[in-house]
Amino acid sequence: MSSDRAGAPRLRSPRRGSQKTGVFQYVVLAVVAILVIVIVVIAASGGKKGKGAAARQAKERQTEVARREKRGDKGSGSQIKVSSRKDRESRRRSSREERLERRRERRSRSRKEERTGRVVTGRSGRGGYSSKKTGVPVLKAILPEPTGERVALVGERRVKKGDQIEGRRILDVEQDRVKVEYFTKTYEVKLNQPLY
């Protein structure tokens, strides 16, 4: 009997893959192959990059060794990194020590100038430079004025009651002494004595 009858149910046979599916499989396989090739190439070039960096470092070491030989230093290439770090540290330390030494010299020079009383230029309170006599000012004389007021000669400067000299205020000028106020303390200075 034939199965092509009009009322007979048809049996479905399983479908085989069409040609589109086969082509799609080949395309997927090709894409995966290309990705694998790209990954292999990247991995291979990454290894070469590392070798290039090592080659660069070796070349730098060789140039450093050549420079050292020119200067007369001798050392192996492996010690260059450590010794150059030590060199930098020693240079920093020596420059710091030199700065400290220069400061000490300046301070000692200024102390000597203060002791000898030489004239040096110094920064004034108003921002300009002025020449001033260094050292402690001495009360040299007390002079009467025609108005009846007394004036004291302290160092090279004439001061009267109420004036200030080097942060100290003159409270009173008497015949043989001067009363001075410094912060909250009051003291007296006699003739030929230093102001502080």
Structural overview:
The chain has 196 residues and is α+β, with helices and mostly antiparallel strands. It folds into three domains: 23-74; 82-135, no CATH class; 136-196, SH3 type barrels. It is 46% helix and 22% strand. It has two helices and nine strands. It has a four-stranded antiparallel β-sheet with strand order 6-7-8-9, with no helix packed on it. A three-stranded antiparallel β-sheet has the order 3-4-5, with no helix packed on it. β7 (168-173) and β8 form a beta hairpin. The protein starts with 18 loop residues before the first helix and ends in a 6-residue tail after the last strand. The model has no long low-confidence stretch (mean pLDDT 77).
- CATH architecture term of the largest domain: Roll
Largest beta-sheet details = 4 strands, antiparallel
CATH topology of the largest domain: SH3 type barrels
Euclidean distance between termini CA atoms: 142 Å
- How would you write the strand order of the largest sheet? 6-7-8-9
Q: What percent of the residues sit in helical stretches (DSSP H or I)? A: 40-55%
Mean pLDDT: 77
Number of strands: 9
**Rg measurement, Å:** 48 Å
Query: Which stretches of 5+ consecutive residues score pLDDT under 50?
Result: none
The CATH class name of the largest domain reads: Mainly Beta
Number of helices: 2
How many domains? The number is 3
Supply the helix-strand structural class.
Answer: alpha+beta
* Coarse shape: elongated
Strand content: 15-25%
Could you spell the SSE succession in H and E letters?
A: HHEEEEEEEEE
